[in-house]
Amino acid sequence: MRYRTTTLIAATGAAALLAGCSSGTDDEAPPATETSTATATETATETASPSPTEPSGTATTSEPAPPPPDDEAGDAAPAFPTTTDPQTGESDSTSLHLEGVRVSEHDGFDRIVLDFAGEGLPGWDVQYVPAAESQGSGAPIPLEGDAVLQITGIHTMPEDPAAYETEPVVEGDAGAVEQVVYDTLFEGRTVVFAGVDEGAVPFRVFALGEPSRLVVDVLDDDD
């Protein structure tokens, strides 16, 4: 599996704050009886549930599981349709903004992922169009590929329009998707065009949350 990724929003820097530690005095140590009780409890717990990877007396902290990567969408990914008809989906958010576009090649399909910041899931309107034209102005957009797939994320309304200063192009890698071009945010709709090699082929669309993503898989018959 090969990944091609272009990050569309530059991340801002973050300052790190270091806190010093001071040692306590002997009279601040816990009483001997409390230490003995805690040790006995820990020993009993470790005996009941031994850990082959943790040494005796070592405390463990449970970390929240990270969200599944896009290639493990599981049941969220529908089956590929047999047609190339337009597909639409409803949004449950009005505060998402585009952070990046990624393209990756998988077994049997190419995946385009629109990463959004904010809460909720984007809606979508995805369909083949005669040509790539910029929203509002209608200006033609250069795009490689024999067919043009227009990917629109619906109800994406950021508070700061400057967040849409993006790199315009994501290149494919000899799969079904030749090139992906970010167009613009227009009336709450984030538009991206994908140039598909060898004409229109079936595609599937679904959304994932935490973080919010719009996923478009384009069938690759050559795999």
Shape: globular
Regarding CATH, which class of the domain at 78-219?
Answer: Mainly Beta
Mind telling me the C-alpha Rg? 25 Å
As a percent range, the share of helical residues equals: under 10%
Q: Please summarize the sheet with the most strands.
A: 6 strands, antiparallel
Strand content: 25-35%
Secondary structure category = mainly beta
- Uncertain ranges: 1-68
Q: How many distinct beta strands? A: 11
Domain AMIN-like: 97-219
Biased composition (Polar residues): 81-95
InterPro entries: AMIN-like (IPR056303)
Region (Disordered): 20-95
Summarize the structure.
Residues 20-95 are annotated as: Disordered. With 223 residues, this protein is mostly beta strands. The protein has a domain at 78-219: Immunoglobulin-like.
